[in-house]
Specification:
With about 110 residues, this protein is of the alpha+beta class. The chain has one domain. Helices cover about 25% and strands about 30% of the residues. It has 3 helices and 6 strands; from the N terminus they run ααβαβββββ. Strands 1, 2, 3, 4, 5 and 6 form a 6-stranded antiparallel β-sheet that branches. About 15% of the residues are buried. The mean pLDDT is about 85. Keywords: Signal.
């Protein structure tokens, strides 16, 4: 694809907004929902994640969610929490498959 001065100018013109429109498009950040940390659990996956948090080690798991359901991952959890008392447990940590921070729902995780 050949980029001409005119197509480049059109592209830049679409990216630069007039000062009267720009403030209207700014998004406001919503406050984060309160979380309830999980310190202990009878769930075997949550217990394994809590041990992994203490020892800062990855856990081999299969996750039944996301873009590749059932994919093998090595997940290093950093926190376990619930969004509501008695609700599902979530784990936040680093996924070695995606090389980024991810949040997994614990009831969708199977230990490898």
């Amino acid at each position: 694809m050949k980029v001409t001065r005119r197509s480049f100018a059109r592209l830049l013109g679409g990216l630069i907004l007039p000062p009267t429109i720009a403030p209207a498009l700014e998004t406001k950040r919503l406050p984060l929902a309160p979380t309830f940390p999980v310190q202990e659990s009878s769930d075997p996956v949550a217990s394994r994640f809590l041990d992994a948090i203490k020892h800062q080690e990855p856990v081999p798991v299969f996750y039944q969610g996301g873009e590749t359901p059932g994919a093998f991952r090595r997940f290093t959890p950093t926190a376990l929490y619930r969004l509501s008392p008695g609700g599902p447990i979530f784990a936040t940590g680093f996924c070695l498959l995606r090389h980024s921070t991810r949040t997994l729902r614990v009831d969708r995780v199977r230990l490898a």
